[in-house]
Amino acid sequence: MRTNQGFAGDDRGTFGGRMRRAQIERAAAEVLSEVGYAAASVSRIADRAGVSKGVITYHFATKDEIFRRLAVQLLDGCAAHITDRVPDEMPPALRLRARIHAELEYFASRRIEFLAMAEVMANHRDEDFGRAFEGIAESDIDTVAGILREGQEAGEFRPLDAHEAAHLIDAAKNGVLDRWAADESLDLEPMSASLLDFVARAVRADGA
Amino acid sequence: MRTNQGFAGDDRGTFGGRMRRAQIERAAAEVLSEVGYAAASVSRIADRAGVSKGVITYHFATKDEIFRRLAVQLLDGCAAHITDRVPDEMPPALRLRARIHAELEYFASRRIEFLAMAEVMANHRDEDFGRAFEGIAESDIDTVAGILREGQEAGEFRPLDAHEAAHLIDAAKNGVLDRWAADESLDLEPMSASLLDFVARAVRADGA
Amino acid sequence: MRTNQGFAGDDRGTFGGRMRRAQIERAAAEVLSEVGYAAASVSRIADRAGVSKGVITYHFATKDEIFRRLAVQLLDGCAAHITDRVPDEMPPALRLRARIHAELEYFASRRIEFLAMAEVMANHRDEDFGRAFEGIAESDIDTVAGILREGQEAGEFRPLDAHEAAHLIDAAKNGVLDRWAADESLDLEPMSASLLDFVARAVRADGA
Amino acid sequence: MRTNQGFAGDDRGTFGGRMRRAQIERAAAEVLSEVGYAAASVSRIADRAGVSKGVITYHFATKDEIFRRLAVQLLDGCAAHITDRVPDEMPPALRLRARIHAELEYFASRRIEFLAMAEVMANHRDEDFGRAFEGIAESDIDTVAGILREGQEAGEFRPLDAHEAAHLIDAAKNGVLDRWAADESLDLEPMSASLLDFVARAVRADGA
DNA sequence: GATGAATGAGCCTTCATTCAT
DNA sequence: GATGAATGAAGGCTCATTCAT
After folding, report:
1. What is the model's pTM?
2. Whether A and C touch (3+ CB pairs < 8 Å), yes or no
3. CA–CA separation, B165 and A190 (whole Å)
């Protein structure tokens, strides 16, 4: 007898299986974005996906796994998108700008998924109640800090604590995404422009 | 129909009653900060407070009311703190700086409460799943936008979309608080300095 | 230290005590008539009486005691009212009519109390879930059966099973009271007339 | 929002599902008849049915729904039984008699269900505490009133207020059923005969 | 692969009752 | 006499998960 434990986090499996998992993940994202983490029950997800509750347990070991995958996939996709679009050779100021722009661009077509991911990252905890996504953005921030340091050496950026500034840039960017995602009537384009302008001014060298 | 139990939203009541309510709110804040919104059950709060579950229902009509009060009290306290410390006569650049500093200062001695409030604001929903604290910071942000416009007229600040910039400043500030609150080992002072510097640079006029 | 057990079912006590008990009983009757047995909680009764919950426990050993007293008092009052108004010397047909009329008349000015009593009698159970007011009307019905037998001997009433007929008369009378009590807009007078007519016809001897 | 659990009001579903629901309804009826409305908890019903509490929530949306179905099914079944057995062409006096007889006959083999239904009808309230089964018998009574009027025109019945008389007949009939159901040792047959006789006498024309 | 059924722990809340003051 | 406070059991219900078919 084949146990369903084997499927957990498994990207192998039949084509149909992958399809089903994708369908369930999509439903989960919609439910999360609409009713929030606390009310996102397996029942509601099954309803939304138009399948029985059993199907979900068959394809995912636990509910948490669905949520985790949702967040991880989006995070990974975003990272790949950025890497694709931001060559290492770009000068620092442009590279910083390109990274931020690429991230906003990535989520611009994934509002629901972003909201779902935000719910998961804010609420997902391990069994000891520790935040499961604590520090997930750290490497990203380190990359930005690196760019800032590079730019300082090149004289493009002013003296500042690169690590702190990277966090501030990240927070401002997340603020833009959060606000945009929460209000469907908002247009990301001008918000994005204001953000890029704001950040550029905050870090540029005096003579620049 | 009002029963003679439950002081829901009642600021009157005996000294003992106010004490108990404060004790329960404190326990609720601790639990929220430690295990998160989803796991913050009445049982856990009662355990933490060292009282029976019934006591909580006796003093608060619903669990949500405790959470709401927690958030509202802190928000109100913070607003009062800022108003006290930031006279309207201050010139815009100083006023902006003073506001941010006052807010960070207020939460610096209320880490647990800040975490609890953040959990509540991120998760509290009304019965139709709408975010209950949606737009709660809007008036605050409008105030900052007003300061920015004033500063622009005075030539202290550069041309920018005041409303967008106010949101970016808010997001950066919240990012600092979130990061600090999540990691007990962090020192708010230097983070605060970086933030103030970052914001000042982002908005100052070219000639300044 | 004086325990409150002593008061249970106690008609002695101070004047103030009797007043309080009456006030509580009145409130209990109102609550019962408005929300029904299941929702008639001590809290709601205390609210209605404008006293604290503690007062109720002070004057009555248990909630059930209040309810029991409510029913018993009304039942006793009704019995006394009937006895007062229906002399044993009346001829059977008149006596039957007078009894029914007296009972309707008694409750006519006690709608709330009647509803409360009906709730209690329908729902009150002892600790083994046996109906506490089972057979409470039996002696009344026996009295009516006696009148029927007397009337048969006197040739006023037709041959019939006196005990069964007494039950049927009782049921018809209760039906009138129930319907009237449930609908404030109803006028008891014509209903009463129809009932008396109905019963008289049902039992009268052929030649009468 | 409909979850995929709960068949609330659903007559479709698998054979097994219908069986379970019937089993649960049977257990609920037994519990209601034995301990009364107030003590008829989901736990007790589950115990009686020999299933876990969760099963009940799985098959019925709420406890009230079980009770409502219990009452409605019995009421509907009774109405159908009467319609089947009482042709419209019968002369009024016979038709009246046949209706009453059919109803008693229907419940004669359903003592437990009758008791359960009586508990529900006496106690079920909507959220504003209004009686949920208020006036449920009204159409039935109107039918009887119609028969009485027909019989008056045909000279079979005496002049009387048909609507009032119909209510009295209904009350007498319910009295018989209540008494019989409450006492297992009673034989419905002679009670039924007395009732039919009583009613016939009460309404017949003088010359009949 | 998929499903409906079942479970049992846990949730929030209501409640009758006890008790110190 | 009276009160507010506290208790703990019980209530109905939701839910993630398991499992036989």
Report:
1. 0.88
2. no
3. 12
